[in-house]
Specification:
about 500 residues, alpha/beta, Rossmann fold, nine-stranded mixed β-sheet, four-stranded parallel β-sheet, 16 helices
C-alpha cells in the first residue's frame, strides 16, 4: 500500500473541498492537489527517478510542501523532510546520509544550500522555472508500494552524535493516521493550521486532515506574527494546530493572539518538550480545558505514544487533578506502552523506569544504522530513553530523559521535579536544571533561570525548593540568563548549558 492512495481516495470523495490554503487565501482543491501531485510524479519519473529513490525536502512552510510530499509518494520515492531552521551543513549531511538524488527547497534556503549538498543531489527551488518544468509531462498514477517500504525518513535532532534517519514506512504512517482519527473524535471535523514546521509534528498531523478531506492552512515559518495568525483564524476558524510549549506560552500574551479570537481556536495540540504544570494551569485559564490536548511522541513513533485529551483532565477539585496535568496521559489507540526496570521487567505502579513502546506506529529502524536500530528496538519494543512512571490507571508521567538524570551521592535526582518547583515562583519565566561534576558527591544540580520582572534572590529560590523537596535536590547554584538555548524545535539544549557550566568552572 502507498500512503498517498489514502489521500487520493479522500480526493475522490471531496474533490471540490479546499485542500491547501496560504494564510487567508484558498489555493487548491483536492482535485487540483492530486492533479499537481500526479503531474510532479510524472516529471520526476522523466528525470529518471525510480521507486525507492530518496529526495530531501528542505522547505520553510510553503503551499508546495504537500504537493512535493505527495508527488514523491506518487512516484514511489522516499522523502526526507528537514527542519528549515537547521544549518545548511546539517541538511547536507542528511541528504548525503540517505543518498538523496534531489533536494526541494524554498527561495529563502536555496542559495545557502548550494555549497552543502552532495554533488549528485540536484537542488530544485519550488518557486523556480526548473520546478515548473517538472509539470506538463502527463500524470503518473500512485505507484504501488509495500506496507514495509520506506515512506518518510525523519532525521533525529542529533543531541548525541550525528542525526539518524528514522525510517517510517507506509504501515507506520497509516497506523499513525488511524490512531489519530480514532482518538481525536470530532476534532478532524474542522481544519488544521500549520504554524509549526511542516517537516515535523505539524506535517505529520496534517496527513490525518488530508485523509479526512479537510483544509490545511499554512502560515509562513519564522517569527509568528499576530496579523497572519488573526487572518487565518478569522477566515477559516475554528482551526486546530500543533504548538510546542514555548509557543503556547507566547500565545497567552495578547499582542500575539487577540483574546477575542480564542473562540476561533478548536484545539491546541501541544508537545515536543515538557509542559510544566504551572504553564498548563495558566493555559487552561486562557483557552479553557476543551481546547488543550497533550500529545507525547518521538521521531521514532511520530506524535503517537500517549495523549491527554480534555476529557481526561479530571475534576479541578479532585485529589488527582495536578497529577493528571503533570502526566502525558494514557496510551494511544493501537499502541502498547509500559515502564520497565533496567532488567526489562515491568515496573510497579508509581515506580520510575524507562518508557517502552510497541505498535505499528514505530519506525522500521534507522537508515543504515543496524547497531543503533538493534539497541533502540531490542526485544520488539522502542526504548525511548525517557524515564517515567505509570499509575494504576495507565497514566504516564515523564520525569526526564535518562541522560539528564543526576546521580548525587548515590541518589537519583530528576531535574524536571526541581524545574516544576522553581516555575511556581512568579518571577521565574523559564528554568533548566543540569548536573555538574562534584568531587564529593559525584554530581550536584545547578539551575539556569530566566527571570521575568524583578530577578528573584537565590535565597528565595532556595526556600521554595526546601519547602517542597529533599535538601540534597536543592540546586547548589542559580545562574541567570537572558534566554535559554533552544533547538530549532523549541527544546531546551541542556548540552549547551553543560558546556556553559564547564567553561565557567574552567575559569575559576
Amino acid at each position: 500500500m502507498n500512503v498517498a492512495a489514502l489521500i487520493e481516495q479522500a480526493a475522490r470523495t471531496h474533490p471540490d473541498a479546499v485542500a491547501i490554503s496560504w494564510v487567508d487565501r484558498p489555493l487548491w482543491t483536492y482535485r487540483e492537489l492530486i492533479a499537481r501531485a500526479g503531474s510532479l510524479a510524472a516529471g520526476l519519473r522523466r528525470m529518471g527517478f525510480m521507486p525507492g529513490d530518496r529526495v530531501t525536502v528542505a522547505m520553510s512552510n510553503h503551499p508546495a510542501f504537500y504537493e512535493v510530499l505527495l508527488g514523491a509518494w506518487f512516484a514511489g520515492l522516499t522523502p526526507a523532510p528537514q527542519n528549515c531552521r537547521l544549518h545548511p551543513a546539517e541538511i547536507g549531511y542528511a541528504a548525503g546520509d540517505c543518498g538523496a538524488r534531489a533536494c526541494f527547497s524554498t527561495p529563502d534556503l536555496t542559495d545557502r544550500l548550494r555549497d552543502h549538498l552532495p554533488r549528485d543531489c540536484t537542488l530544485i527551488d519550488v518557486d523556480s522555472s526548473a520546478y515548473a518544468r517538472l509539470h506538463g509531462h502527463g500524470t503518473l498514477k500512485v505507484e504501488p508500494r509495500a506496507p514495509e517500504d520506506a515512506a518518510w525518513l525523519f532525521y533525529t535532532s542529533g543531541t548525541t552524535g550525528k542525526p539518524k534517519g528514522a525510517i517510517h514506512t507506509n504501515r507506520t504512517l497509516s497506523a499513525m493516521i488511524v490512531s489519530f482519527l480514532a482518538d481525536s473524535g470530532t476534532t478532524v471535523d474542522d481544519h488544521i493550521l500549520h504554524l509549526a514546521p511542516l517537516s515535523h509534528a505539524s506535517g505529520f498531523l496534517g496527513l490525518s486532515y488530508l485523509v479526512r478531506g479537510r483544509n490545511n492552512v499554512i502560515l509562513p515559518t519564522g517569527s509568528l506574527e499576530a496579523e497572519a495568525l488573526a487572518k487565518a483564524l478569522r477566515t477559516f476558524g475554528p482551526l486546530s494546530f500543533f504548538a510546542v510549549p514555548t509557543i503556547v506560552r507566547r500565545l497567552m500574551e495578547p499582542p500575539l493572539l487577540d483574546p477575542s479570537l480564542v473562540p476561533k481556536v478548536k484545539r491546541i495540540f501541544f508537545g515536543g518538550a515538557p509542559m510544566y504544570v504551572e504553564d498548563l494551569k495558566r493555559a487552561l485559564q486562557v483557552f479553557g480545558p476543551e481546547r488543550l490536548w497533550h500529545l507525547y511522541g518521538q521521531g521514532e513513533s511520530p506524535n503517537t505514544i500517549t495523549h491527554l485529551p480534555p476529557r481526561l483532565f479530571g475534576d479541578p477539585s479532585g485529589p488527582d487533578y495536578e497529577a493528571r496535568l503533570a502526566s502525558v496521559g494514557v496510551p494511544r489507540s493501537g499502541v502498547l506502552v509500559r515502564v520497565a526496570r533496567e532488567d526489562g521487567s515491568d515496573a510497579r505502579p508509581g515506580e520510575i523506569g524507562e518508557v517502552l513502546v510497541q505498535g505499528d506506529t514505530l519506525m522500521a529502524g534507522y537508515w543504515n544504522r543496524p547497531e543503533a536500530t538493534a539497541e533502540t528496538l531490542r526485544g520488539g519494543w522502542l526504548h525511548t530513553g525517557d524515564l517515567g512512571s505509570m499509575d494504576a490507571g495507565g497514566y504516564l508521567t515523564l520525569v526526564d530523559r535518562s541522560k539528564d538524570m543526576i546521580i548525587s551521592g548515590g541518589s537519583n535526582i530528576y531535574p524536571r521535579e526541581i524545574e516544576e518547583v522553581l516555575l511556581t515562583h512568579p518571577n521565574v519565566a523559564e528554568c533548566a536544571v543540569i548536573g555538574v561534576p562534584d568531587p564529593e558527591w559525584g554530581e550536584i544540580p545547578i539551575a539556569f533561570v530566566v527571570a521575568q520582572g524583578t530577578k528573584p534572590a537565590p535565597a528565595e529560590l532556595d526556600g521554595l525548593c526546601l519547602n517542597q523537596l529533599a535538601r540534597y535536590k536543592r540546586p547548589k547554584t542559580y545562574r541567570f540568563l537572558a534566554e535559554l538555548p533552544k533547538s530549532p524545535y523549541g527544546k531546551i539544549l541542556k548540552r549547551e548549558l553543560r558546556e556553559l557550566a564547564a567553561k565557567a568552572e574552567a575559569l575559576r
